[in-house]
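Appendix C reproduces, verbatim, an entry submitted by the partner laboratory led by Prof. M.T., so that reviewers can inspect both the input and the predicted structure.
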Amino acid sequence: DSMPTIDIWNKSELVYSSTIESENEIMWSGEEGFFYHKIGQKLCGDFVIIVRFGVEGNQNEDEFNDNRILFKYTNCAGFIKPGAPLNIDKSQLDVSPNYISGFEDMFCM
């Protein structure tokens, strides 16, 4: 399994993408379904996190194809404690109907 891609949009601009090399801490285990990102990016106002299948090895595939989106999460930074890890359970996510059956009830991000 290839690692999912995470994009974070803030004020209509892409402020983080896991496809861009950086010094951010990333841990991934496809077997265990474990995916951890320490992004270190300050957000202001409304933001959206989009998690989608990666395009590893397939350069002809459109990376922003809606069929690849697993789920989205939207919030306002004003409602989140600064510096605290963001833990999100399945009920807070907008999960794609195409992939909802692949998410366990106890899924969290």
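The chain has a mean pLDDT of 77. Additional entries are available on request from the coordinating office.
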